[in-house]
């Protein structure tokens, strides 16, 4: 009998889940809370609690070829860095090409996922779903569950001393859509992640002044690389990855920091952190240095306290007048429909093998897709995680034992604690090529570079010295794509 798989979420990760199930002869049933596919990448004017959405101006941080689905390249005429309107169109084309939407139940919210009474024997799950507008929920039983609900959903809202005195508006970037209403205002943006940088740059063109508050500083990388080509196409190469993996860490950091500082001196711009460049998830922003140089964005330290009409920064005594505050303070990882017995989460730390599979489940029939903060694009990781799970559920591959999974989790946690400063945004970090290769090895689709060197040296050259594109993971193994070599 065909196994039935529940897929929670109809975004990019959910779509790769549907396709992976179909490739392995499984029956996918996808529940999507909204009326359309796309998840986070579909821009929405309204701010809905529990529903992530990009800002109107959002552009992807990874170039299109690096971010591509492994067997469906983006249109040639699309720009290297796609605006969210292009990104959602690409996702829609992918869904249409593989006829994925017919497996989606739109306007269905998953309320609860729990082990079936016979779970110990069958590994099955009971999923409770409520259709929008209906009072009574329904239940169904599934052989497996793929959680593709995303993690940019529930914002972290910090509390500051004296915040209750402040007369202006305070919102999180989760609620920020476009710059309407900020004309001629003094705006404080707290946090220097990608969203904080994007908001500061956008508002600096209409606000009277933007202050960018940072506790630790940030290393900023840019989209435009050598000779005007995408920076990630230059950086994300297996050749460079070997250097990164095997050269002494201080040397790797020195080389990278020198390259980054050649564009602008981070210390001069008051952005240089105490930690090395690979000790923090970098910010991707091409325009911020120009805005700092022009004075429309001023970099300040952490907020010590709020006043009625502004803030006082750490190390300063004078009040700085502020009308509006935007919190770019990240998101908390949580799954309201899952108990912590199934997926353990504490202070944004998770206990998941490959950031996906709960290791202590008796039956490995549930997976979390797309939970990660890679130095690179997330979409290809989601796709490969989906392929691994579908191959496992169809009995074509075997996953490691619980002991092996826990050892891998401990190893990764040790590596992260050694390299990154502590904080809620550095609990799910992953290096893109290394992590993709680990998943590919499980799925049996890792490129065989040694064989390639002797049998197809031209392809070897492009795979080793060229950018590591997702198409490499369709060259061999289950569901290889005949056009992968040409792509």
Helix fraction by DSSP (H/I, runs of at least 4): 25-40%
C-alpha-based Rg, rounded: 23 Å
CATH class of the largest domain: Alpha Beta
Please report which band the strand proportion falls in: under 5%, 5-15%, 15-25%, 25-35%, 35-45% or over 45%: 15-25%
Number of strands: 24
Number of helical elements:
13
Structural class: alpha/beta
Query: How would you characterize the largest beta sheet?
Result: 5 strands, parallel
Lateral arrangement of strands in the main beta sheet = 3-2-1-7-22
Please tell me the overall pLDDT.
95
Name given to the CATH architecture of the largest domain: 3-Layer(bba) Sandwich
User: Could you name the ranges where pLDDT drops below 50 across 5 or more consecutive residues?
Assistant: none
Distance between the termini: 37 Å
Overall 3D form: globular
Per the CATH scheme, the topology name of the largest domain is FAD/NAD(P)-binding domain
Number of domains: 2
Question: What would you give as the CATH superfamily of the largest domain?
Answer: FAD/NAD(P)-binding domain
